[in-house]
Inverse folding.
């Protein structure tokens, strides 16, 4: 028997590590991975609440989040490839065309 | 039994996430993200979501991470150089992340009595099987969103093909 609260706290820990990685990382691919980590953390809360309410709708929500995350990964990685062709770098500090 | 499962795979997930944060080579980060996703699949299974555990392994740890690893290898991404991040991130980002964590942990732990307990085999759906329940809901009440997501996937494939073409 595990309290549902422990699952939710674990999801909060994973989400905050994802936020930290999003802010700290300089490689655009790793930043993208930390977004996936945050999505996974939120999925864990959905599954935990679905278990708590004994309803399947939370699990269906996770299913849709997975579909959208897969589509997002495909489009995002294509954008990264297009960006690399133009700028020859993956460092987000050097992608500052809009800044100046 | 379940607390041991939760502790082992929860700590594995946190260790994988921290490893993602601390590693400097993108391929190491990608592989530690696979560890996080596999341990989350075990946690989904322990919460009675067998279908999602399988989908997590196949879709996330399989398809999405293979895509990530392919892109890392295709672009020959080396070690990232450590630079100072933006000042806004240091001033607002980290205190904000810490505040979000403290708030969430406080709310969850103070409401732990109301949130209840999770036991193995506790999740009993009306159909007896989790997959039957999900598919019944998905193909009756949620048929339109399901079809819309298939269009979304189609558009994403087209977008990826167009974006990754040689001449843009």
């Amino acid at each position: 028997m595990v309290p549902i609260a422990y699952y939710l706290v674990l999801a909060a820990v994973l989400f905050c590590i994802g936020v930290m990685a999003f802010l700290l990382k300089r490689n655009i691919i790793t930043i993208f991975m930390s977004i996936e980590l945050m999505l996974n953390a939120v999925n864990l809360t959905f599954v935990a609440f679905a278990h708590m309410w004994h309803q399947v709708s939370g699990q269906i929500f996770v299913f849709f989040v997975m579909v959208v995350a897969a589509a997002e990964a495909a489009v995002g990685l294509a954008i990264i490839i297009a960006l690399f062709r133009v700028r020859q770098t993956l460092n987000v500090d050097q992608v500052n065309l809009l800044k100046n | 039994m379940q607390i041991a499962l939760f502790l082992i795979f929860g700590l594995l997930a946190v260790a994988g996430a921290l490893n993602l944060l601390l590693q400097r080579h993108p391929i190491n980060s990608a592989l530690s993200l696979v560890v996080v996703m596999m341990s989350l699949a075990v946690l989904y299974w322990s919460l009675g979501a067998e279908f999602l555990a399988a989908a997590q392994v196949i879709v996330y740890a399989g398809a999405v991470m293979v895509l990530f690893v392919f892109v890392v290898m295709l672009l020959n991404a080396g070690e990232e150089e450590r630079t100072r991040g933006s000042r806004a991130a240091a001033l607002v980002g980290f205190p904000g992340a810490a505040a979000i964590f403290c708030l969430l942990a406080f709310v969850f732990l103070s409401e732990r009595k109301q949130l209840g307990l999770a036991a193995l085999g506790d999740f009993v759906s009306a159909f007896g099987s989790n997959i039957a329940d999900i598919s019944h809901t998905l193909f009756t009440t949620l048929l339109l969103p399901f079809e819309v997501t298939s269009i979304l996937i189609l558009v994403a494939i087209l977008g990826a093909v167009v974006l990754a073409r040689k001449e843009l």
Observations:
- The helical segments of chain B are 2-22, 26-46, 50-74, 87-110, 112-115, 130-139, 143-163.
